[in-house]
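Two proteins follow. First one:
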Amino acid sequence: MSRPHADLSADSDLTSFDLDGDTLREECGVFGIFGHPDASAIVALGLHALQHRGQEAAGIVSFDGEAHVFHSERRPGLVGDSFSDAATIERLKGRAAIGHVRYSTTGGTILRNVQPLFAELAGGGLAVAHNGNLTNALSIRRDLVRDGAITQSTSDTEVILHLAARSRKPRIIQRFIDALQAIQGAYALVALTNKKLIGARDPLGIRPLVLGELDGRYLLASETCALDIIGARYVRDIENGEIVVISEEGIESIRFADAQPMRPCIFEYIYFARPDSVVNGKSVYGVRKAIGHELAREARAEADVVVPVPDSGVPAALGYSQETGIPFEMGIIRNHYVGRTFIQPTQSVRELGVRMKHSANRAAVAGKRIVLVDDSLVRGTTSVKIVRMMREAGAAEVHFRIASPPITHPDFYGIDTPEREKLLAATHDLEGMRQYIGADSLAFLSIPGLYRAMGEEERNGACPQYTDHCFTGEYPTGLTDLTIASPRQMAMLAEAD
């Protein structure tokens, strides 16, 4: 049965069929390298591998040691659209560089919010790129502006630059530590000075950051897949509450926060990270297949074929198929060559183009009882479209299986989630959700099942091993800004990065 909830009809236009339109969104990826003759080219390649973490904008800042100047290129769009030509890379001179790919949470991407952000401090220039979201950025920004600070963006990352600039410590790294000790929330940072590449990870390790090595030079990246694309060697994960400082003298590790158990974001394993990445020592692909096995044990359906919702549902669907013995079929085909700017001038053309990106493989589903496996269910509007597409292709029954627990709470750590009243699982019970999406049956992975798939025996309620607040409502940090703004105002006033 359904409980009262916000009107979802605005999101339910069946003429706009995009399976990516009702998913959780990660806001960015970061990459940096120090001391390499092709630093900016290496960063551009690393950002290509991290493109799945943000497609709205990309930027690179380099430091030219010969001219003693920072160079910056920040542009909206994909990495390949901005950083594939030799002329652009040539302008980014220097042996050290950092880069960023971004997904904006509200409105369009504006250039002033594209990272890395740069500022001249008393001790020299500082460029910062940030993955995550600060949950006290609005409070800090309000105090800074009251004291006369002039802000240039609506990004919470700029707060870090202001805090570092206002520190009275003599060295930039000390100023940077002062800034980190004043903020709360989730973050993985790469920063660049005229002498150092700096990496930092929040005290709970919510956002990922890894250290690699290429040709004897150290680099930092959001995921190991960015190391693989350039042939770099994985060294280790940056620890929670750790700063690493890379310079010509080598690498130095500094702890800026008290040691405490790590709580990495569980959605890195469910959805965000690339399947070929290893996050905190766990293969993302292996975890997702294990999730599929657990889902099959908990919620087996009598069916003829298992069909993944591409692309993120594929590993879990494979695990579900292997566990049940039900054949795996690609019942939905994704066209990877459809751009975001396809012109749809009239209603009739829009209706013709709704399946350009995803279409049913009628031969695989017609007359079949199918199990659809998706990674998560957010608003549910896309699930309605998927079920309808399968029925129109001739599926006899459609059994929906979700490879994660119900999402009942919004995120404040860098995941673009709607307000709670727009989360389907927060406003409907299981039967109400099934009726809403039109499936013959619906089931989610349980929280204990998710932890088993992660290789944990159980979830310790007093000290969970992962950040799983979207399922439990247990937020691991303070949420200071919630006292001065609504979740939507938080997104509008300080876009997550």
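Second one, unrelated to the first:
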Amino acid sequence: MTITLNQQLLDLSTPRVMAIMNLTPDSFYDGGRLKSEEQLLAKVQQFIDEGASIIDLGGYSTRPGALDISVEEEISRVLPVVKLIRAHFKDIPLSVDTFRSQVARAALEQGVSMVNDVSGATADDQMLDLIADYQVPYVGMHMRGTPQTMNTLTEYEDIVVEIRHFFSTLAEATAKRNINDLIIDPGLGFAKTVSQNFFLLQHLDAFQLLELPILIGLSRKSMIYKTLHTTPENALNGTSALHMAALERGAHLLRVHDVKEAQECIELYTKLRTSAT
């Protein structure tokens, strides 16, 4: 399992960490915390020091019920940060977390090298053509509806089969466009109940049949803090526990708020997997 980032191969045979950098005021955990260029650059340096392989920049909150914003506002949140990071950090791969091809194009033109699309190319019919033009890795996530409506769309006959079919269709569409690096994300918390999230995580290995890298984003999510009757701020231990479960079931990328702890999970998992009897 490899993907090409910044004209270099990233080997996913050992799982990797994607660090979350929310540039929104209303994200469920860390929205609005980075208030200055100094804070932002310090956070990037921290992510790098702790072992992040990719930093994922998002200017549109996708928490349930989040407010919709214009393309222009999303670009105004993302683009200055891309330029700032690129002026100080030349090598760290950047991803843009957006379902809009206009935002993705603006970011790609400024040196972003990956697109993370929560809609799996269902929200913007220009997205896959853009990815084909730029030949960058593409994360396609499964979601129904929009962040504003997804909590009402949680009825499935067989959730694993239906999501796997969604990814098979997406893989066909990317193959037709000669897109080389497709990464799939089952979308925990997006049009899924807490019980469905745990069921998907339990059966994550079913998606290995697609022979595609798997990204998991469960960091501090409601499936953890609601189950433990706590808050996102107190959900780090639960996050680490479920990260290990995801790694054991075939996750190649962990999308996280807390890089150091996720990297430790990967190191322990790798040691456990490679230990001689």
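SUMMARY FIELD: The beta strands are 2-5, 8-11, 16-22, 54-58, 94-97, 115-117, 138-141, 182-185, 215-216, 253-256. The chain has a mean pLDDT of 93.
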